[in-house]
Amino acid sequence: MHVTREPGGRRRLTDISMLRRGASGRVQAVPVWQLERGLTEHADAFRGLLNDRMPA
C-alpha cells in the first residue's frame, strides 16, 4: 500500500500492489489498484490469492 499526505495533512491511499516473482526469478511489486486508474490487469490474480487464503 502507498499512502500520500495531502497539503492539509490528511493521509490518502493512492496505490495497492502485490509482490510477484517475474520470469527472471526476481520479485517485483505490481499494481492491483491505483487511485487515478482503479483496478488494474493484476486485480484478478490478487483476488485469486485472497480466495486461496480465505477460510472455507
Give a short synopsis of this structure.
The protein has one helix at residues 43-53; strands spanning 2-5, 11-21, 27-34, 38-39. By secondary structure, the chain is of the alpha+beta class.
Annotate the secondary structure layout.
Blueprint: E1 2-5, E2 11-21, E3 27-34, E4 38-39, H1 43-53
Antiparallel strand pairs: 1-2, 2-3, 3-4
Walkthrough of the structure:
By secondary structure, the protein is an alpha+beta fold. The protein has one helix at residues 43-53; strands at residues 2-5, 11-21, 27-34, 38-39. It has one domain (2-53). It has a four-stranded antiparallel sheet with strand order 1-2-3-4, with no helix packed on it. Strand 1 (2-5) and strand 2 form a beta hairpin. The longest helix is centred in the C-terminal third of the chain and has 11 residues, at 43-53. The two termini are 27 Å apart. The mean pLDDT is 95.
